[in-house]
Design a protein that fits this description.
Layout lengths: L6 E6 L17 H13 L3 E12 L2 E12 L3 E9 L4 E8 L3 E6 L4 E6 H8 L23 E8 L2 E8 L15 E7 L5 E7 L2
Antiparallel strand pairs: 1-2, 1-11, 2-3, 3-4, 4-5, 5-6, 6-7, 8-9, 9-10, 10-11
Length: 199
């Protein structure tokens, strides 16, 4: 999957995703907008979100839907149903802050990751925390971030950014994107929509 070309992943963190036209945003600097969003996201201690994920690879689409519940600093539970055409594969991910468990009921398979041990060995504190949508810019190389504009998801105002991912924080992802496009909610600083592009 990492070697496939023309791969695009779209993750939507809300049920409604009606996109309207881009609005001009000339008054605030990039840093001011980012700082304001980060301050808002810091006040969020827990959340529950609906997830819709689409992987577009070589003309074929795989779609997953589910929910994620997150409590700071590092506890989460995510359930995903992946439509694989002939069948639906369910996956459950549970992180208690010490261990990440992945359960695939159809295959009767469980995997276990010792988060603290992996973080210590890789010097990467994002291991086990990839479900945290309250750290909007954690996955970017900071000086690569560009402000694209304002849009709307339903009735909510969102800010759109593009940038290069910090690959040292994404070592354990199933695929490593070359560019990320991200929609961040103005109300609470949470990531609402994300598209990951490979080269």
């Amino acid at each position: 999957m990492r070697r496939a070309k023309n791969l695009r992943v779209c993750v939507v963190f809300s049920v409604v995703a009606i996109m309207c036209g881009v609005l001009a945003h000339a008054d605030d600097s990039l840093q001011t907008v980012m700082t304001n969003l980060e301050k808002k996201s810091e006040t969020v201690t827990s959340y529950k979100a609906d997830i819709a994920m689409t992987i577009d690879m070589m003309g074929q689409k795989m779609e997953s839907k589910g929910t994620v519940v997150f409590q700071k600093p590092d506890k989460s539970r995510m359930e995903l149903d992946m439509d694989m055409g002939s069948m639906t594969m369910k996956q459950i991910f549970v992180n208690d802050g010490v261990t990440v468990w992945t359960y695939q009921p159809l295959m009767k398979m469980v995997t276990k990751i010792d988060v603290k041990k992996v973080q210590a060995e890789t010097q990467n504190d994002s291991v086990g925390n990839k479900n945290d949508i309250s750290k909007p810019f954690a996955g970017f190389v900071e000086d690569s971030i560009k402000f694209v504009g304002e849009e709307r998801i339903g009735d909510d105002k969102v800010f759109v950014f593009k940038g290069t991912p910090d690959k040292t924080r994404m070592q354990n992802m199933d695929l490593t994107p070359s560019e990320i496009e991200m929609w961040i909610g103005d109300e609470n600083g949470l990531v609402r929509r994300m598209i990951l592009y490979t080269e």
